[in-house]
Amino acid sequence: MKLAILSRNGSLYSTRRLVEAARSRGHTVRVLDPLRCYMRIAPGGFAMRYKGRPVSGYDAVIPRIGTSVTRYATAVLRQFELMGSWTPNPSDAILRSRDKLRAHQLLAAQGINLPTTVFGDSPDDTDDLLSLLGPPPHVVKLNEGTQGAGVVLTEKPSASRATVEALRGLYANFLVQEFVAEAAGADLRCFVVGDRVVAAMRRQAAEGEFRSNLHRGGQAAPAQASAQEQEMAVRSAQALGLEVAGVDLIASGRGPLVLEVNSTPGLEGIEAACGVDVAGAIVEHVASRVSIGNQ
């Protein structure tokens, strides 16, 4: 298999592990910076070049697209798709997952449980909007934030209103969710590859912090996801069209809830916590799908 990995930095842990996993299994692999890819678009004439040289013939592409380059990098990935390359996470699926509001709408439409979420635009509707959610605490999230950035916990109605008004003043896109106290600052990251969870870790927020992200000081430990949690994680990834995803679940009085579906989940934390070759599982899944497609 001739494989491309779209990544801004070939030395990042996740990118390096995917390269190692592919080469150890006999595949040809190249890391391409999506911002150095440029495209020709014409009927019957899709083409791409990279640093002055033609790019063609890749059986598959694994995207490792950061949020800051989402728009351009997904256009590059789409070009690969139009040129016949297969990808576990299509460009449109990545765009669905990056838009938290859209992702929550799609998950809810599939009957997947998640924290109650509200969204509105007009300042005149703020009080009524918050009343749809119920009393605080509330969690206010930027619509395209990642790794816990742009997430604020408000504990009083006045704080919720002030935060909403401040974000509106900045023309930011955001949503507001119920705060699930039963989660106690912990979540379960389920790493989905294809139709199964290949590894899971429980993340616990640092003292005085409600966000469990490892980038926010959270601690990780290996976990065994229940059958219900595994099914929910796989269904969530599939609802957005992803075959590789990190699905974050939290405990609640009404069962597990989906907090987020990440289309570019990091490998370092979960491989270190669980001792599982997640990179290898991804490469093997991609190779099997390419092989089936070539039959």
Short description:
This protein is of the alpha+beta class and 295 residues long. Helix content is 35%, strand content 25%.
Features:
Rossmann fold; 295 residues; Dna Ligase, domain 1; 3 domains; alpha+beta; five-stranded antiparallel β-sheet; globular; D-amino Acid Aminotransferase, Chain A, domain 1
Percent of residues in helices? 25-40%
User: What's the CATH architecture of the largest domain?
Assistant: 2-Layer Sandwich
- The CATH homologous superfamily name of the largest domain equals ATP-grasp fold, B domain
Estimated share of beta-strand residues? 25-35%
| Tally of contiguous helical segments | 9
Question: How far is the N terminus from the C terminus?
Answer: 14 Å
Mind summarizing the main beta sheet? 5 strands, antiparallel
CATH topology of the largest domain, which one?
D-amino Acid Aminotransferase, Chain A, domain 1
Low-pLDDT segments = none
Shape label: globular
Total count of strands: 15
Radius of gyration: 20 Å
Textual characterization of the structure:
With 295 residues, this protein is α+β, with helices and mostly antiparallel strands. The protein folds into 3 domains: 2-88, Rossmann fold, CATH 3.40.50; 96-113 and 182-284, ATP-grasp fold, B domain (D-amino Acid Aminotransferase, Chain A, domain 1, 2-Layer Sandwich); 117-179, Dna Ligase, domain 1. It is built from 9 helices and 15 strands. It has helices spanning 13-24, 70-82, 91-98, 100-109, 126-133, 157-169, 227-240, 268-274, 278-294; strands spanning 2-6, 28-32, 37-40, 47-50, 53-55, 60-63, 117-118, 138-142, 151-154, 174-178, 186-193, 196-204, 219-222, 244-250, 257-262. The strands form 4 sheets. A 5-stranded antiparallel β-sheet has the order 13-12-11-14-15, with helices on both faces. A 4-stranded antiparallel β-sheet has the order 7-10-8-9, with helices on both faces. Strand 3 and strand 4 (47-50) form a beta hairpin.
